[in-house]
Amino acid sequence: MELVFEGIGQAFWLLVSGDTAAWRVILLSLMVSGSATLISLCIGVPAGTWLALSRFRGRQVLVSLVNTGMGSPPVVVGLIVTILLWRSGPLGILGLLYTPYAMVIAQFIIALPLVTGFTMASIQQLDPSLRLQIMALGASRWQMVWLLLRETRLPLLAAVMAGFGAVISEVGASMMVGGNILNQTRVLTTATVMEVGKGNFPLAIAFGFILMVLVYLVNSLLTHVQQRSRTR
Fold first, then answer.
1. Which residues contact 155 (CB under 8 A, 6 or more apart)?
2. What angle do CA 72, 91, 83 make, to 5 degrees?
3. Which of 10, 44, 107, 109 has a CA between 20 and 30 Å from the CA of residue 135?
4. How many CB atoms sit inside 10 A of residue 92's CB?
C-alpha cells in the first residue's frame, strides 16, 4: 500500500508543480483521444442511423462487421494501421507513422464501431410507429432523422462515453503506431507501461491515477449532461 500512496502523492505533485513533461503527456492524451472520438462521432452517428433505418442486400453483413469491430482487440488495429503506414506500405509516403496523427487514426478505428453500434441500437429500439407519425405530419426524411436522433440523445451520450473510454484507456495500438516517443507521442497509457517496465512503480501509479481521474472527470461531465437531459 505504501507504493500506492506514494504514487498518488506523486500524481498530485506532478499536477500542482506544473511539471512540463507530465502536462505534455496529459494534454496529448486528451488531444489524441478527443480527436479520435470526435471524428468517430461525425462518421459513426450517420452510419449507425443509416444502418438502423435502411433495408438493403448485404445489410446483415455490415451489421455483423460493426458488431465484430466493437470487440476487436486494439493491438490488431494497431498492427493493421502500422502495416498501412509503414515506409513500404500503401500509405507510407504520408510519413504518418510514429506521429500523433497515426495514433488518432488507430483510435478512430477502435471507436468507430462502438459509436456506430450504439447509434444503430438506440434508433432501432424506438417505436417504429414514431417514424410513421413524424412522416404523417409532413416532415422530410432529414427532419425525421433529426427528430429520431433527438429522441435518442441519451443513448448517444452513452456512445460518446463508450468511445472515449475505449480509446483513452487503450495501450497496444498507441504503442505500435506512436512508438511512445518522449515529447511527441507519449500518452498516459504508454507512459504507465514504460515506467512499469523500468520498475518505477510510484511514477507508473501516478500516471495511472491521473488517467483514472481524467476519465472520471470527462464521464462525470457527460453523465451530468445526460441526466439533465433526462429530467427535461
1. 118, 119, 121, 122, 125
2. 45
3. 44
4. 14
Query: Residue 232: which of 153, 156, 155, 159 has the closest Cα?
Result: 153
What's the rounded Cα separation, in Å, for the pair 232 and 228? 7
Mean per-residue pLDDT for 171-197? 90
The full set of domains in the chain, from first to last, is 2-231 (1.10.3720.10)
Stretch (H or E) spanning 93? none
Mean pLDDT value of segment 193-215: 88
Which is it for the CA torsion 52, 55, 60, 66, positive or negative?
negative
CB count, 10 Å around CB of 224? 10
Q: For CA atoms 91, 92, 95, 101, give the dihedral sign.
A: positive
**pLDDT tens digits along 108-161:** 999 999 999 988 888 888 777 776 677 666 667 777 777 777 777 777 888 888
pTM: 0.87
Contact 146, 103 (CB under 8 A): no
How many Cα atoms occupy the beta-carbon half-sphere of 113 within 13 Å?
18
Q: If we measure between CA atoms, which residue out of 203, 208, 214 comes closest to residue 189?
A: 208
Question: Does residue 169 surpass a pLDDT of 80?
Answer: yes
| Distances in whole angstroms, Cα of residue 45 to Cα of each of 113, 135, 203 | 10, 21, 38
**CA–CA gap between residue 119 and residue 86 (Å, rounded):** 33
